[in-house]
Design goal:
homodimer; alpha+beta; BirA Bifunctional Protein, domain 2; Rossmann fold; Translation Initiation Factor IF3; 3 domains; 11-stranded mixed beta sheet; 28% strand; globular
Chain lengths: 486, 486
C-alpha cells in the first residue's frame, strides 16, 4: 500500500478519494460541490476530449457554443424536461453588486434584479432548440449535427470528485433530422461511438443497452446507455444518447419544409459524456499503489529515471532513447531532478499511473541494458539497448489490450443470472445481476426500495427468453441488467 | 457589394454585424448580451485555441480547471480588484426551482436561498489564489504555470458580437513565482506569445506596450498589452498580460518557504485573450464581399468547385487534387452539391472567407488547366495540372504574408505624430496618434472626456524624447499611443 492511500479492501470509497487527491487529479474547492481539476487530471480529460472530438468530427459533427444561461421560462416548455431538470439549479437573480454602506464588503444591489431569472444550464436542449428554430427552415438545412463542449451545473447535495459534482465539464451533442428513422440511427451511432471509445481507449468494457421508461432522460422517447462495472462491482452510467422524438421541436415550434413543400416537425437526438469518465477510468484500473492508466489516454506514457542520479553518460542514453520514442509518437519525459532518490520517484510515478518506467543504471548500462517496468503488473524486464523502442511499442499495445481483457473478465465473472428473489438479492451484493423483470415501473420501484438496485439497462443484445419477474412473478420475455450504481 | 452586406464606407458598424451574421459566425441569443457562436465561427475559435494552447505548452504551461462560481466575499479580498470587477456580475442567489402553485410554470424556491451568494466568474484570480494557498508550500512548488480555458461573464449593457458580450470564452493564465523578476519576465513572455500569435497567425500587426495606471487590470502592478488597428482605424485591445506583484498572494495569504527556509509572499502574473480575437480577425482583413481569413487560421483553406456541375471526369480530377493537397497538410473540401450554380457558390465561399478557390471546368480541363482564385485580391490564375500543389502551397504562404504586410502598412500610414492640441484632435479622427503626455491621470481623463480617445499604451519601444503634453503643456520624456478604442 502506497503512503497515504487506503486499500480497496479496507475502504473502497476512501481509496478512490485518496487516488484522486494523491495522484494530483482533482480537489474540492471553496465552493460547495464544485471541484478543482488539477493539471494531471485535466491532462487526462484533454486526452479524452481530443479523441472524442476526433470521433465526433469523423461522424460528421461540428462544434458550436450556446449561452451558459437559460431563461427560466424555457425550462417549462417541455413538460417532462421541466420535471427532470428544473429542480436543483443555480439561479441567477441579479446582475450587479455594490459596496456595502458599512464598508464591510460588497452586497447584491437590490435595484439590479432581473425581470426573468436565468438558470445556469443543467443541459442545453431548451436554449439550443430555441436557436434551431432560426436555423432550420427546409429539408436542405437537415441533418444538423452539432456538438458543444461546455460546463454545466446541477446542484448536488452529495458530491464525489469527478463522479458527481455540482459543476462538471461535458460535451452535449444536439442533432436535428428530417425523419424519425434518421434520428434513431443517429442516437444509436453515438451510443456506438461512446462504447467504442470506452472499450478501445479507456479499456473499460461496457454493456450497451437502453434505459427503462423511469430511468430515461427527461424529455426523451428512448435513452441509450453504456454501463460499466467498477472494481467494487457497482455500475457507472458512462454515457447516454437520447432519441428525443419531436418533443423539443414541438415545445419550441421547430418545423421544416419537406421536399414536397409540406411543414413537418423536426426529429431530435442529444447525447453526452462528462468528466465523470475520469472517475470511471480511475475506478476501472487503479490499484492500491495508485492510478493505473491505459496507454492511449496517458498524458505521459513513458518516464525515464536515471539511477542513482543523472550523470553525463546516463543522460546521453536517456536523451537518445527519449528522442527515438518521441519519433515513434510516444509521450515520454525524463526525470532530471537530482534532489529526489530513485525509490521516491518510482513510487511517485506508480502513484501517477505512468504506464512504463525506464530505469537507467550504471551497472546495467555496462551490460548494454536498461530496465523497463510496466505499471499494471509491476513486471520488470531487462531490455538490450537498441531494442527498447520496439519493446516499448509492443508493451504499450499489450498493456492497452491486457487492461481491457482484465476488466472484461472481471465484468463477466461478476455478472450472474438470478431466477428467484433470494438469489437476486444475494448476487446483487456481488455484482451485476441478469434477471427477468415484468416491465412495470411499479416492480422496478419496489426492487429499488428493497435492494437499492436499479435496472441499468435492457441490453441491446437481449435474448428472447420466457421467464418470470424475480420480484412479482409475472411473465417476462427477456433478462435485464440490475445493479447498484454510482 | 455582396448581397446583404453593408459597405464599410457606408456603415462600418453595420458592415461588421452583416459579416458576422451572413458568414455564419455568430448570432444574438435569447439571453440578453449572450451570443451563440455558430459552427463556422467556432471552427475559427478552435484554430485560435489550438495554436495558442500549443504555444502555452511550449512555454511550459499546463491546463487546469477552476470553479465557475466565486463566493461573493472572495471578490472583496483584494481592494483594487473588487473595485474593478464586483460591479456588473451575474449573481447566483438560489439553488432550486419549484412548480408554481397556480400551475403557470416554475418559480424560484424561496427556501433555497444561498447563505453566501455566488458570483459567476468575471475572471478567476480570487478563486485560483485561494486554491494556490493549498498548492504552494515551498520554493520547490514554484514556478506554478497554469492556464485555464473557460467561459466568463461580465454583465455588459452595450454588447457587440465577439467584441463585447456578457458571456465570452477565453483563456486565463495564472502563474506563481518565487521572485519579482521571474514574474515580470513571465508577464512579458506572455505578451510576446500573444504578439507573435497575432502577427504570425492572425496576420494582425500589434503595438506592444504597457497600460497607464488608470487603464491597468484591477489588482495589477503593471499591465502589458497588445493593441491592433481595425479598418475603421479604431484600436482593439487584443490581449493583456499582468504583473500582479504580491497583491493576490497577500490577499489570500499565499506564502512559500524559500531556500533559506524563510517565509515569503509569492509573486504573480495573469494573462488572457478571448473570443474577442475573432472580432479582431474579422475587422482586420475582411472586405465588402465578406470574410477574409489568413490561411493559417482558416478552417477550410481551399475549396474545389466543379464548373458548371460535377461530372465523372471533373470529379476525378477534383478528388485527385484534394488528396494531394491533404497530403501536404492543406485543409480542403470539394463542393459536390449539384443543386447550386457555380456563381452562387463562388459568392458564398467569398462570403465565408475561404482563402483559395479552385474552379475546374470542362474547357480548361481540355487545355490541362484549372483556375485558382485567391480570396484577398480576387486575383485568378490558370494553373497547369500537376503544378497546382506547389502553386497553392506558395499562394497560401504569400497570402498569409501579404495580409500581414497590408495590415501593417495600413497601421503605419494611420499612426501619426501630433505635437499640439489642434493636430492631435484632428489626427485622432484619422487613426492612432503618437503624442506627448504629462503622465498624470488628470490629463489622461480630460483628454478622454474631450476626445473619447485613451492612451492605448506606452510602447515597449518608446524612444526617449523631450516634449510637452499635447493637453497640459507640461513636460514629457516620450510619446505614447492615443486612439479611440473598441
Amino acid at each position: 500500500m502506497a503512503k497515504g492511500i487506503s486499500s480497496r479492501a479496507d475502504n473502497y470509497a476512501q481509496w478512490y478519494v485518496d487516488i484522486v487527491k494523491r495522484a494530483g487529479l482533482a480537489d474540492h474547492s471553496a465552493v460547495r460541490g464544485c471541484m478543482v481539476i488539477k493539471p494531471h487530471g485535466f491532462a487526462i480529460w484533454e486526452k479524452i476530449q481530443g479523441q472524442l472530438d476526433h470521433m465526433f468530427k469523423e461522424t460528421g459533427h461540428v462544434n458550436a457554443y450556446f449561452p451558459l444561461f437559460i431563461p427560466k421560462s424555457f425550462l417549462s416548455k417541455e413538460a417532462a424536461h421541466v420535471e427532470g431538470f428544473a429542480k436543483e439549479c443555480a439561479v441567477v437573480t441579479h446582475y450587479r453588486l455594490k459596496n456595502a454602506e458599512d464598508g464591510s464588503g460588497v452586497i447584491v444591489d437590490p435595484d439590479a434584479k432581473l425581470e426573468e431569472e436565468l438558470i445556469v444550464r443543467p443541459t442545453s436542449e431548451t436554449i439550443i432548440w430555441n436557436t434551431y428554430k432560426d436555423w432550420i427552415k427546409s429539408y436542405r438545412d437537415l441533418p444538423l449535427l452539432v456538438n458543444q463542449w461546455a460546463n454545466v451545473v446541477r446542484w448536488e447535495m452529495r458530491t464525489r470528485l469527478f463522479l458527481r459534482t455540482s459543476e462538471f465539464l461535458w460535451q452535449e451533442g444536439h442533432t436535428a433530422h428530417a425523419t424519425e428513422q434518421e434520428a434513431i440511427e443517429e442516437a444509436l451511432r453515438m451510443q456506438d461511438v461512446y462504447a467504442t471509445f470506452a472499450e478501445e481507449y479507456m479499456a473499460m468494457p461496457v454493456i450497451r443497452g437502453r434505459k427503462t421508461a423511469s430511468e430515461r432522460f427527461a424529455g426523451a422517447v428512448e435513452t441509450y446507455t453504456i454501463e460499466a462495472m467498477m472494481q467494487d462491482r457497482r455500475a457507472l452510467q458512462a454515457g447516454t444518447s437520447h432519441f428525443l422524438g419531436q418533443n423539443f421541436a414541438k415545445a419550441f415550434d421547430v418545423k421544416y419544409l419537406n421536399e414536397e413543400n409540406r411543414e413537418e416537425y423536426v426529429w431530435a437526438t442529444s447525447w453526452g459524456v462528462s468528466t465523470r469518465l475520469v472517475g470511471g477510468l480511475i475506478m476501472t484500473h487503479s490499484d492500491d499503489d495508485g492510478l493505473v492508466l491505459p496507454p492511449k489516454l496517458a498524458p505521459t506514457q513513458v518516464v525515464i529515471v536515471p539511477i542513482p542520479k543523472p550523470d553525463p553518460e546516463i543522460m546521453e542514453v536517456a536523451e537518445r532513447i527519449a528522442v527515438e520514442l518521441k519519433g515513434n509518437g510516444i509521450k515520454v519525459k525524463i526525470d532530471h531532478d537530482p534532489k529526489k532518490r530513485p525509490g521516491f520517484k518510482f513510487a511517485e510515478y506508480e502513484l501517477q499511473g505512468i504506464p512504463v518506467r525506464i530505469g537507467i543504471g550504471k551497472r546495467d548500462l555496462e551490460k548494454g541494458q536498461i530496465e523497463v517496468a510496466r505499471r499494471d503488473t509491476k513486471e520488470k524486464t531487462m531490455v538490450d539497448i537498441g531494442q527498447e523502442t520496439n519493446f516499448i511499442k509492443d508493451l504499450l499495445e499489450n498493456m492497452q489490450k491486457d487492461l481491457f481483457a482484465k476488466a472484461l473478465a472481471f465484468q463477466k465473472e461478476n455478472t450472474r443470472p438470478a431466477d428467484n428473489w433470494e438469489d437476486f438479492t444475494q448476487l446483487l451484493d456481488e455484482g451485476f445481476v441478469s434477471a427477468h423483470w415484468d416491465g412495470t415501473a411499479e416492480s422496478e420501484q419496489k426492487i429499488k426500495e428493497k435492494t437499492k438496485a436499479t435496472v441499468r439497462c435492457i441490453p441491446n443484445d437481449q435474448q428472447a427468453e420466457n421467464g418470470v419477474c424475480v420480484f412479482s412473478g409475472k411473465p417476462s420475455t427477456g433478462r435485464v441488467v440490475f445493479a447498484r450504481a454510482y
